[in-house]
Specification:
It catalyses: alpha-L-fucose = beta-L-fucose; beta-D-ribopyranose = beta-D-ribofuranose. This is RbsD/FucU family protein. Pfam families: RbsD_FucU. GO terms for molecular function: D-ribose pyranase activity; fucose binding; L-fucose mutarotase activity. By secondary structure, the protein is an alpha/beta fold. The chain has a single domain, classed as 3-Layer(aba) Sandwich (RbsD-like fold), CATH 3.40.1650.10. Helix 3 packs parallel to helix 4. The longest helix has 14 residues.
């Protein structure tokens, strides 16, 4: 246990978050996502896990992880197949955690399912959650922490 660190952030996840640099992506995915196969193509090379719902995992990650404010696609969600404009409850929940962490409204773009798989393969790491609802898949691009 570490003081001030969300206990959902296990050692492997903390290591990956600390090792990532500005512009690196991480993906948070649900239990149905092909996480192992996709993670093998990432920089990390293996699946990391936070066995909680997607919004809880996102909140823990965002407690230490800044989002990239220099780009328009630093927060992304997987589109619902056949209904790209639909935003599901799990996606609303993660959006709320992003805005809470950033302290302001923050845009989240949508990415078509297969394009999301391709973005995930280029990510630094894949964090699979215990989320069982469909479309609990998100990409977050790391930003910077300015000097004091």
């Amino acid at each position: 246990m570490l003081k001030g660190i969300n206990p959902l952030l296990n050692a492997e996840v903390l290591h990956a978050l600390a090792a990532m640099g500005h512009g690196d992506d991480l993906v948070i995915v649900d239990t149905n996502f092909p996480a192992d196969a996709v993670a093998r193509e990432t920089t990390c090379g293996k699946v990391l896990r936070i066995d909680r719902p997607a919004a809880e995992a996102a909140a823990a990650i965002l407690s230490v992880y800044p989002l990239d404010s220099f780009v328009d696609d630093s927060a992304a969600r997987m589109e619902v197949v056949g209904s790209p404009g639909e935003i599901l409850p799990v996606q609303h929940e993660v959006q709320a955690e992003i805005e809470k962490a950033e302290g302001k409204a923050w845009p989240m773009i949508s990415i078509e399912r297969f394009a999301f798989y391709e973005r995930a393969k280029q990510a630094y790491c894949v964090i699979q959650t215990g989320e069982r609802r469909f479309y609990g898949c998100f990409a977050l691009r790391k930003g910077v922490i300015p000097p004091d």
